[in-house]
Amino acid sequence: MSLHYYKKNILPISDKLFRFALRIVGDRSEAEDIVQEVMIKIWNKRKDWEFIDNMEAWCVKMTRNLSIDKLRSKHRRTQNLDGLFHLKDSSATPLEKAESNDTIHHISKMMQDLPEAQRLVMQLRDIEELSYKEIMEQLDMTMPQVKTNLFRARNKIKKRLNKEGNGLRQHSNLA
Amino acid sequence: MDYDNIQTLLEKYFEGNTSLAEERQLKAYFQQKEIDPAFEAYRTLFGWQVEEQSVSLSSQFQDKLLAEIEAQEKPGFVRRFLRHPMSQAAAVLVLLAGMWWAYQTDTAAVEPGEGVTAEINWEQYEPKTKEEALTITRNAMVMLSKELNRGTARVAKEVVKVRQLGRIDQ
């Protein structure tokens, strides 16, 4: 019975938990290990399931806490991000910047540069498409905190996109 | 979708005021090949969001996880063996046979007369005269009275301590 419930209701959210962990730790294999650990913990706590109001929020919180613990214990966030996205350094030429501008990795890097709260709110809204209420529950935030973090995150990304867009236009005009 | 409509939606999006449905409209718009050049800077953002939605765990993840859970749940040899009624009966028989064997071994190990301690002659401790009995009884009463006095003194000491504590609380 428990295994049936687990397969039907909990396993399907593992991809979401993976994207969430990945947004925090920035490393695929580490995020996968975290999700595996979380999924086993959830299974081992199956006697408590009936007392949990919002299973998905509980799973997200557990993933968040474990991801942050792993990140803190290893102190290697920056190195991982560089390894993951193979980013060029700031000395890249305008042409190289233009080429990388279209890539998904470029936006991923912008996201990773955001403060954690802004990054996670934007992740849950723009990628997981959750309502504000669901984001409040999953991140233990108030509604104003959710809205402020989302506003700030989107505007930082917008500013960087516009800045780079202008830079590109100037570069193509010169060429 | 026309320019004004997208412009309005983008403004609402960056102010954090779009609904989920409006955000899906924006994603759909930026998936098109031909878009207004004025919005080109945002194509990567919405394209990235759509692409990120399909990021998933490796295909073997679920199988690995379920295998691990099933391995955890698999009962040990003894529990599996004891599931069948015949096995339970056999286990009880083995237990009884073991107890009987232990009992037999224990009784057979002691030879008659071996391991028996020397008999105590209690008569030597019994008082022979009335005076001796009186002395023994008196000594016993004195010892009892001393112990009682010591106990009373200790209780009195504790009562004083409790009273002091009570005063501190007040």
Describe the structure in your own words.
The complex is a heterodimer of chains A (175) and B (170). By secondary structure, chain A is mainly α. Chain A folds into two domains: 1-85, Rna Polymerase Sigma Factor, Chain: A (Orthogonal Bundle); 88-175, Winged helix-like DNA-binding domain superfamily/Winged helix DNA-binding domain (Arc Repressor Mutant, subunit A, Orthogonal Bundle), CATH 1.10.10. Helix content of chain A is 78%, strand content 0%. Chain A has helices at residues 2-10, 14-25, 28-44, 55-74, 77-85, 94-101, 104-113, 116-127, 132-139, 143-174. The longest helix of chain A is centred in the C-terminal third of the chain and has 32 residues, at 143-174. The relative contact order of chain A is 0.10. The mean pLDDT of chain B is 85. Among the domains of chain B are: 3-53, no CATH class; 82-106; 138-170. Chain B is mainly α and 170 residues long. In chain B, helix 1 (3-15) packs across helix 2. Chain B is built from seven helices and no strands. Chain A binds chain B through residues 3, 6-7, 11, 14-15, 18-19, 22, 32, 35-36, 39-40, 43-44, 101-104, 106-108, 125-127, 129, 131, 147, 150-151, 154-155, 157-158, 161-162, 164-165, and chain B through 13-16, 20, 23-24, 40-42, 44-45, 47-49, 51-53, 55-58, 61-62, 64-66, 68-69, 72.
